[in-house]
Amino acid sequence: MPASRVPVTTVADVIARMEATGAALPAADGLACFNRMYLEVTRQINGRLGEGFFADPAFMTNLDVAFAGLYFGAVAAASDPAAVPLAWRPLVEQRANTGIEPVQFALAGMNAHINHDLPLALVATCTALATSPDAGAHHADYQKVDQLLDAAEQSIRESFESAPELAVDHHLAAVNNLIAGWTINSARDLAWTNCLLLWAVRDDPIARGLLADSLAGSAALASRLLLVEV
């Protein structure tokens, strides 16, 4: 089995796979732009797992691994866009488009991963650990990740361009306006709600499939809007 398709089982595996993914891609590749951000956040989460930051580090470890596995599945399929999960397809299709800014790629990756993959990963983790989303400290720990992601999102936006540059460059200002309405916290709040919905219909394959398809379609639509050339 190719290394890109070998399942990851630890957060260290996740970080190593992201490092290998980044090293294999041109810096301007749309997947590389998202991968850099995701790698930095994962390193931060890994550093907090053994510090008492999370009330249930075992749950968060399993969630991190399950979550990353869905991203790696999209990466592994990237050479055949038709095989890429629907939520990831806009980013994969546009990844070589030089008319799209790195910040757009990064946020489109966040959109696909949070709005589609995260609810699925949460349900899979709860199922594997014989728990439920509303048990123990799961939601509180989930919200703690927002603190780390806030910093990551701000860093991405600040690294894009400074305010004076935006003011004098109409293209950059247009890109800034395009991405201004998308925020990580709002996406993660919605992802938790969708996790609860998926959990409620977990024993109904038809309802679960319809809901998962709806999440994929809405995530794909949002990514296409984020990846418009301006």
Describe the fold and architecture.
- By secondary structure, this protein is mainly α.
- The chain has 10 helices and no strands.
- Helix 2 crosses helix 5, helix 2 packs across helix 6 and helix 5 runs parallel beside helix 9.
Fold topology:
Layout: H1 11-24, H2 30-49, H3 57-76, H4 89-94, H5 102-128, H6 138-160, H7 163-168, H8 170-179, H9 184-200, H10 205-226
Helix pairs in contact: 1-2, 1-3, 2-3, 2-5, 2-6, 3-5, 5-9, 5-10, 6-9
**Major beta-sheet overview:** none
Shape: globular
Alpha-beta classification:
mainly alpha
Number of helices: 10
Give the end-to-end Cα distance, rounded to a whole number of Å: 41 Å
Q: Whole-number radius of gyration? A: 17 Å
Beta-strand proportion: under 5%
Which spans of ≥5 residues are poorly predicted at pLDDT below 50?
Answer: none
How many strands appear in the DSSP assignment? 0
The helix/strand order is HHHHHHHHHH
User: What is the chains' assembly state?
Assistant: single chain
Query: How helix-rich are the residues, as a percent range?
Result: over 70%
Instruction: Please tell me the overall pLDDT.
Output: 88
Observed structural traits:
mainly alpha; 72% helix; globular
Summarize the structure.
Helix content is 72%, strand content 0%. It is mostly helical and 230 residues long.
